[in-house]
Amino acid sequence: MKRIILLLLSLLVFLLFYGCGGGTVQQSDSGQIETGPVFRNVNWGMTPEEVQAVETAAFDGSYKNVRGNKGLHFKLKLFDEYPCTLSYEFNDSERLIIAFYSLGVKDISNRYETYQEIMALLTEKYGRPGGVAATVACWTTSRCYISLELESDYKIVEGQIVPPGSVLIIYTSHETEERFRQERQKEHKKNKEAL
To answer: Which of 15, 22, 62, 101 has the largest count of CB atoms under 10 Å?
Structure first.
């Protein structure tokens, strides 16, 4: 029974992440590749101190993720409407590789509507998503990979417990996303061999 559950979970993760690999590279209206900050006021590879110096949201503390790397939390209202936590994750060299918003939806019955509203806002900004599942949508731009997720169960994201009904918007560098993809492939292969 454990093997069947493990296989189904592996298959679900595989479908969610590999199904989101599509999308188009975003360029500015003039056709030039974007050169400003990749996310808010930051760029991949910045140090925690550099991120904290340019981030305008209210600082809410630092932490260590499950890999022991540094992370920073900020509080803000996304799209001037949704209270959320903004987190920045750094690698072993203390260079920025991931940023994500975590929106806790208080009224669980409205979580899907909130997810749809955020998807519409992201689609307006980044174009049509390259991959869409029931509760996951993905975009690929010239400088990052973006995933919008609606959590239906408790989940741990970068060492933080995310309760059901949370909406996550995760930005990763292309290099980080490729590394995660390779790790998922290895885990999938390992799980498959275990059966």
So the answer is: 101
